Amino acid sequence: MKVEQVSKQLEALGNPTRLTVYRTLVRAGREGLPVGRLQERIGIAASTLSHHLHRLILTGLVTQDRQATTLICRANYQAMDALVGFLVAECCVEASCSRDEAAAVA
């Protein structure tokens, strides 16, 4: 994964509303949520949700699929796994401790 892509994803998740939207979709599982139900759960205006979803879609963290007249939003778990993997891939490589020891200190 490239640093530029990771930084865009982290920037997108750095907004409290987008982070809430993303976490809600992650919790929803692979079935995702219709936009209307997502809006109800988050409690924000449709235009605001649309804006934040657009940013998450552009970074690859969220996908949308149309089923008849309904837009279904889903967390892109492959992208999430890649992002988390990038963040932890080199944990403690320059230290004398193991990853488990580093986690215990934190």
Automatic annotation (TrEMBL):
The keyword Mitochondrion does not apply. Coiled coil: none annotated. Keywords: DNA-binding, Transcription, Transcription regulation. SUPFAM superfamilies: Winged helix' DNA-binding domain. Residues 1-95 form the HTH arsR-type domain. InterPro entries: ArsR-like_HTH, HTH_ArsR_DNA-bd_dom, Metal_resp_trans_reg, WH-like_DNA-bd_sf, WH_DNA-bd_sf. Transmembrane segments: none annotated. Pfam families: HTH_20 (PF12840). GO terms for molecular function: DNA binding; DNA-binding transcription factor activity. This is Transcriptional regulator.
